Each structure stands twice: as C-alpha cells, then as structure tokens.
Amino acid sequence: MVEKLRTAVSGAGWSNTAKRTVERYSVLAVAEIIETGGTVCIVGRMTEVSRKGCYINTPSTLSVGSILRVIISRENQTFFTNGKVLYVHEGIGMGIFFVDPAEDQLQILHSWLADAPVTYSL
C-alpha cells in the first residue's frame, strides 16, 4: 500500500501528466461525489484542482467513465458541478473532470485558484 501511494504521488507509471493543458493548484477542501442515480455517495478530500477538474483523495473509488455530481466545500463556499471520473488510483483516489460548470460556480472556483500555490505549471 505504501509503495502504491508513493507511485501515485510521484506520478511514476502515470502518463496523464503529459496530457494536462491547464495549471493545477494546491487547494484543500471536502468533496462529496454522488454517482448518477444517487446510488453511491463518496466523501473525500480534494487536494489538487484546476479550472477543468480535480483530484479527490478517498479509499473508495468509482470506475473510470462514471458520471457524477461533484460538491466541493471550502471556506464557507460550495462549488457544484457535474463530473466524470478520468482516472483512478485504487484505494487512494481519483481524477475528476468538471462537466459544464455554471458561470456562477466557475466564479467560486476561480476565487479559490486566485490565492492557491501552483503545483503543476505548463
């Protein structure tokens, strides 16, 4: 398990870093992921975010391609959008793509990014 976590954190064996097209920021928040149909609800911790998606640390993951509702809470603000699971690190977490967030929700997200340190730059 420790080796699996090291690999996930370092990015070793994971080629998605080459596909990133936007900067990622270090932002801690509580995330609730609800699979379409409301049959599965997972709570985790968001550790990285961009304007296109985020990474949720959670031992419970969903399948790649799962369509879901994303609710992220931080500093008395809540960001809501639809999402899709892009990749999974079993037992560690998953990468989520934001699907068509509303303009008012993007304003909340952008306010979080404005003060956050960049963890991945283009």
Overview of the molecule:
- The protein is an alpha+beta fold.
- It has one domain: predicted glycosyltransferase like domains (Thrombin, subunit H, Beta Barrel), CATH 2.40.10.220.
- The protein contains 2 helices and 7 strands, in the order H-E-E-E-E-E-E-H-E.
- It has a 6-stranded antiparallel β-barrel.
- Strand 4 and strand 5 form a beta hairpin.
What can be said about the biggest beta sheet? Answer: 6 strands, antiparallel, barrel
CATH class: Mainly Beta
Number of helices: 2
Distance between the termini: 31 Å
* Uncertain parts: 1-18
Mean pLDDT, nearest integer?
Answer: 85
How many distinct domains?
A: 1
Secondary structure: helix percent: 10-25%
**Beta-strand content bin:** over 45%
Assembly type of the chains comes to single chain
Estimated structural class: alpha+beta
Radius of gyration: 14 Å
If strands are numbered along the chain, what order do they take across the biggest sheet?
A: 1-2-3-6-5-4
How many strands in all?
7
CATH fold-type name:
Thrombin, subunit H
What is the correct CATH architecture?
Beta Barrel
What's the SSE pattern?
A: HEEEEEEHE
Tertiary shape: globular
- For CATH, the homologous superfamily is named as predicted glycosyltransferase like domains
Please write out the topology.
Layout: H1 2-10, E1 24-35, E2 41-49, E3 53-57, E4 67-74, E5 77-89, E6 93-99, H2 103-114, E7 118-120
Antiparallel strand pairs: 1-2, 1-4, 1-7, 2-3, 3-6, 4-5, 5-6
